[in-house]
Amino acid sequence: MSARDWIEKDFYRELGVSSDASADEIKKSYRKLARELHPDANPGDAKAEARFKAVSEAYGVLSDPAKRKQYDEARRLFAGGGGFPGGFGGGGGFDVNDLFGRAAQGTGGGGLGDLLGGLFNRRGGGGTASATRPRRGEDVETDVRIDFTEAVKGATVPLRLSSPAACTKCGGSGAKPGTTPHACATCSGSGLVTRSQGAFAFSEPCRDCRGTGRIIDDPCPECGGDGVSTRTRTLTVRIPSGVDDGQRIRLAGQGEPGRNGGPAGDLFVRVHVNPHSVFGRQGNDLTLTAPMTFPELALGTTLTVPTLDGKVTLKVPAGTASGRVLRARGKGITKRDGTSGDLLITLEVAVPNNLSSEARKALEAYADVTKDHDPRGDLNALLEGR
């Protein structure tokens, strides 16, 4: 992307957020738009695919604190054309790229070249680092949804992605197969040219090769010379046992391809776990609630409950209170390191909605027999002021 393109684009508008939006707001908006515009959700829709690319490009800048700061500074500097003739568009003979070679008046600095040096792989302060040095690819994040049991036991799931990747036709070189790029004669392959203004010399990206240091005479028809194209690929992702809802899994080297021979970025897969109809989770422990009758708790019983891989039987002592938690050791979640949690069973009295006449008579007889027992004695004492 050229300097002019970078400054002219309104990345905040692309994501539908304000310029003072927080990092979480930017991420939330990007995820919503990415889901809506993803090529898989809009097959054959060229407009949606173009918007998907634009949104991804905007997020790539605004999600990086350093790039966002540089972008905001550049927009403030040139807001409304920055007082220069022609504004951003270069009207009246003005080209924003010329500012890479101008000294900042009254500051002794190196102009916009220093301000945006990091984004265009240059060092500020008159540095002459090569624009062709290897650059690491951007990290990519996606989401996957799995069942509760898969999260507990682990699973292998296919993941279909549409993202930038090295062009398969040219192998990432940008040149038509059978041809190779050659070093730019203007900058000798460095990607930078130097201008002298009086006693000062300023470096700027070479216009002939757009700062790449290479000239491609015959661009690849697949990627147009970029060396990168958007393609759909399927990966197999191993979800480890015991993964938590919202946890991210890192796949090294599966992100966007690097530039100039640099390494690829990483792919981060955020896992979303569907809730289970019976089991809950507390760390490595599984939880469930077992409805009980009053006689079972009062007289004691033997209780059999399910686990994720079978069943377990526990003894309920006589006189057990509702709300008591029984523990089945080792029946929880087993992590990759071999540690296991427990199954926690909460006993809860189930009160029937309707009683038969026989059941009502039996309860009334029980209430009459136990009327001398007051379970709310301490509360009643407080109410009576004792």
Task: Please summarize what this structure is.
This protein has 386 residues and is α+β, with helices and mostly antiparallel strands. It is built from ten helices and 15 strands. It is elongated.
Q: Write down the overall mean pLDDT.
A: 79
* First-last Cα distance: 82 Å
- Give the class from helix and strand content and strand pairing: alpha+beta
Low-confidence stretches: 80-130
Spatial ordering of strands, largest sheet: 10-11-15-14
Number of beta-strand segments = 15
Using the CA coordinates, give the radius of gyration. Answer: 33 Å
Shape: elongated
Q: Architecture of the domain at 128-181 and 216-273 in CATH? A: Sandwich
The CATH topology assignment of the domain at 128-181 and 216-273 is HSP40/DNAj peptide-binding domain
CATH superfamily of the domain at 128-181 and 216-273: Urease metallochaperone UreE, N-terminal domain
Order of helices and strands: HHHHHHEHEEEEEEEEEEHEEEEHH
Given the structure, what is the number of helices? 10
CATH class category name of the domain at 128-181 and 216-273? Mainly Beta
Helix content: 10-25%
Biggest sheet statistics: 4 strands, mixed
Strand content: 15-25%
Binding site for Zn(2+) 1: 167, 170, 220, 223
Pfam families: DnaJ, DnaJ_C, DnaJ_CXXCXGXG
CXXCXGXG motif repeats: 167-174, 184-191, 206-213, 220-227
Binding site for Zn(2+) 2: 184, 187, 206, 209
Could you walk me through the main structural features you see in this protein, from its secondary elements to its overall organization?
The chain has 386 residues and is of the alpha+beta class. Among the domains are: 128-181 and 216-273, Urease metallochaperone UreE, N-terminal domain (HSP40/DNAj peptide-binding domain, Sandwich), CATH 2.60.260; 280-383, HSP40/DNAj peptide-binding domain, CATH 2.60.260.20. Helices cover 24% and strands 24% of the residues. The protein has ten helices and 15 strands. The strands form six sheets. It has a four-stranded mixed β-sheet. A hairpin with a 2-residue loop joins strand 12 (301-307) and strand 13 (310-316). Helix 3 runs antiparallel to helix 4 (46-62). The radius of gyration is 33 Å and the shape is elongated. Residues 80-130 have low confidence and may be disordered.
